[in-house]
Amino acid sequence: MQCRTCYLLVLLVLSVVGALAQGNLYTSRGYWEETAKPAYRNILEKIQRGDSLTKEERSYQEDFEGFLKTYFQKMSQAERDNYFRMKETWDKELITPGNNPNQTSFASDAFEWRTKDRLANGIYGLYYGAAAIGALDLNDQAAATAIPLLTSGAWLLGPAINRKKFDNVTRTQIRTLNTGRFLGLIYGAGLGLAIGSDSDDTPKWILGLSTAGSIVVGEIAFNKAKKEPISAGRVEMARHYGILGPWIALSFTAGLGNQSSNIAGASIVAGGLAGIPIGNKVFSQYSYSRGDVDAISSLTLITTGVGLSVVGENNPNENKAYWLIPALGSVAGTILAQKAVQGAHLTDQQGTTLNLATAGSALVGLGIVAWTKVESSTLTIGIPTVLALIVEQSLFHSYKRRNLVMDVQGRIDKASRYRFSMRFSPEGYLVNKQLKPDHMTAQTYSNVQQSLVRLSISF
Q1: Would you list the DSSP string of 203-270?
Q2: Are the beta carbons of 221 and 180 closer than 8 angstroms?
Q3: Which residues contact 21 (CB under 8 A, 6 or more apart)?
Q4: Quick one: which of 27, 63, 235, 305 is 20 to 30 A from 73 by CA?
Q5: Which residues of 40-68 are buried (b: 16+ CB within 10 A; e: fewer)?
Q6: Are 329 and 255 in contact (CB under 8 A)?
Q7: Tens-of-pLDDT digits for all 459 residues of the chain?
Q8: Helix or strand holding residue 456 (H, E)
Q9: Got the DSSP string for 278-293?
Q10: Which residues on adjacent β-strands are paired with residue 421?
């Protein structure tokens, strides 16, 4: 009897495990393994090299990417988030000691030195050289010309000289490096301002410490990204808050009437040291994509512009509190955008297009201001800001609605082979108000009423 009971318990456990396994067929690891199929990787590597595909290869690519899209849509949100967190770690499995060391694995985050990457390296090197001349107060004309060129060339040669450092590097890691360089430059300049205060050596402190900060923070961020998996969304969120923190801190010190240079510099450093941990904390609560953070940054700039337009018609020199308005606008825009993008899952292309459209509409607004010879400070800032807000919000909601519809169809249509559609008919409200149910039966009245929302499922 006891053996039979044990046997039944084993069967029960196996049944539960089997049921759980069936309920979790679409996993982040499984999706990654599908994207890492050799045949698919070989095709994508050919595209990356610029090689042409055969008709069979193009057909295979289209069919397989359709399968991947369906697989991704059937994954739960938790599995999607886990995929983005673990992708870089799993990608490293594609290169093993037994493989050809010259062969690189395919990954959507695979890196090659593009024009903007080369420009970034060259520009940072150029700045470091020019800053060194200013910090050391070199008066030699030949040295002033040669040193920036030498440092710019050295930074361009870096990946070729120190090849081990950049082995198997990903685009996200390079983005982390450049983010660290940029933030380190800001914080170093703030530290230089805090130390130098109003002395004659303040520019030297700013140039020297901004260079040191850029190099040090960039290397720390890069090495950290190589040791620990990090998503592009997390890098962008740290960058956003790394800039937002000093801006808010500086605005608040100005709003409180501070006129001390060293306090202003210290507030920049303090704001940065607080901003990056806050950004990491925000990201830990929701896995934002890079496109999501692009949308957050766009709305933050717009709401900051709204604050600046308010300041434009007032004199902040008379009332320092006006300097708080743009900072509060930045905070409000960030918080509102963070809530709005949750569930949108904007792609990189959608996010960058949103940024591009926002900047373009703002420039159109400035063109209108210049053409009409507007003299009001409020309108000079307000017209481009309002135009950018209209374009940004319309485009954002269009992307979000499309992504949500694709997600619904992925879970209903593609998962169960049902076709789902939803149509809004707001005019039905006006029709229903004209109906008089006095001489109608309940069934007749319900039949002649117009629906506000129509859902249909076909198979």
Answers
A1: HHHHHHHHHHHHHHHHHHHHHHHHHS---HHHHHHHHHHHHHHHHHHHHHHHHTT---HHHHHHHHHH
A2: yes
A3: none
A4: 235
A5: beebbebeeeeeeeeeebeeebeebeeee
A6: no
A7: 445 444 444 444 444 334 334 446 788 888 888 888 888 888 887 776 556 678 788 888 888 888 888 888 888 888 888 888 787 778 777 654 444 433 334 444 556 777 888 888 999 999 999 999 988 888 888 888 899 999 999 999 988 888 888 877 888 888 999 999 999 999 999 999 999 877 888 889 999 999 999 999 999 999 988 888 788 889 999 999 999 999 999 988 888 877 788 898 999 999 999 999 999 999 888 888 889 999 999 999 999 998 888 887 777 677 778 888 899 999 999 999 999 998 888 888 889 999 999 999 999 999 999 998 888 878 888 899 999 999 999 999 888 888 876 655 444 444 444 454 555 555 555 555 555 555 555 555 555 555 655 555 554
A8: strand 453-458
A9: HHHHHHHHS---HHHH
A10: 456
What amino acid is encoded at 264 in this protein?
Answer: A
Residue 70's alpha-carbon distances to 48, 109, 225, 249, 406, in angstroms, are 24, 21, 31, 46, 10
Token pair of 270 as six digits:
């303090």
Residue with tokens 């929701």: 286
- Three-state secondary structure of 441-455: CHHHHHHHCCCCEEE
282 touches 338 (CB < 8 A):
yes
Could you tell me which of 220, 235, 145, 226 has the C-alpha nearest to residue 188?
Answer: 220
Spatial separation of the C-alpha atoms in residues 334 and 276, rounded to whole Å: 14
Residues contacting 166, CB < 8 A, separation 6+: 159
> Residue 293's closest CA among 362, 229, 349, 346?
346
Distance of CA 242 to the CA centre of its chain: 13
